[in-house]
């Protein structure tokens, strides 16, 4: 049985929406929490720690500063500033309502998955009562 062009387009749209939603949800799980330092702020902290280590005479304080420097270096390595969260969010906003309707995803499910209320509102997904 051959699929109509309309059916093929609907399947392609569904796959594209699923990729968009997945990319956004994946980004939410890896996004730095509010209040986390930017890479520039971490670099400044690293520079200050390096200066403090060089100037510190107390060996125990110096040891603690060295560990702090290692911790900051690890945070810098772990940061992924290459992800464009704004673009992912914009794409999600465009796809979420259709995806929700097609898959039966509720407002509560989105919230539990970590999607912010303002993003759901922009997507056109309204609060619903769970029954």
Radius of gyration: 23 Å
Number of helices: 6
Total strands: the figure is 0
Give the proportion of residues in helices.
over 70%
Shape: elongated
Ends distance: 39 Å
Q: Proportion of β residues?
A: under 5%
Mean pLDDT across all amino acids: 88
Low-confidence runs: none
Structural class: mainly alpha
Largest sheet: none
| Series of secondary-structure elements, N-terminal to C-terminal | HHHHHH
Short overview:
By secondary structure, the chain is mainly α. Helices cover 73% and strands 0% of the residues.
Give descriptors for this structure:
131 residues; mainly alpha; elongated
SSE blueprint:
Layout: H1 5-30, H2 39-55, H3 59-78, H4 85-103, H5 107-112, H6 117-123
Helix pairs in contact: 1-4, 2-3, 4-6
Structure description:
This protein is mainly α and 131 residues long. Helix content is 73%, strand content 0%. Helix 1 packs across helix 4 and helix 4 crosses helix 6. The mean pLDDT is 88.
């Amino acid at each position: 049985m051959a699929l109509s062009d309309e059916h093929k387009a609907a399947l392609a749209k569904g796959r594209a929406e699923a990729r968009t939603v997945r990319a956004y949800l994946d980004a939410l799980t890896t996004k730095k929490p509010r209040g986390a330092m930017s890479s520039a702020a971490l670099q400044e902290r690293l520079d200050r720690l390096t200066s403090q280590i060089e100037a510190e005479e107390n060996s125990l304080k110096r040891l603690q500063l060295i560990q702090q420097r290692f911790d900051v270096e690890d945070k810098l390595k772990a940061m992924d500033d290459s992800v464009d969260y704004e673009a992912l969010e914009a794409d999600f906003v465009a796809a979420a309502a259709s995806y929700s309707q097609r898959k039966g995803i509720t407002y509560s499910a989105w919230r539990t998955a970590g999607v912010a209320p303002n993003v759901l509102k922009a997507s056109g997904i309204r609060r619903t009562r769970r029954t």
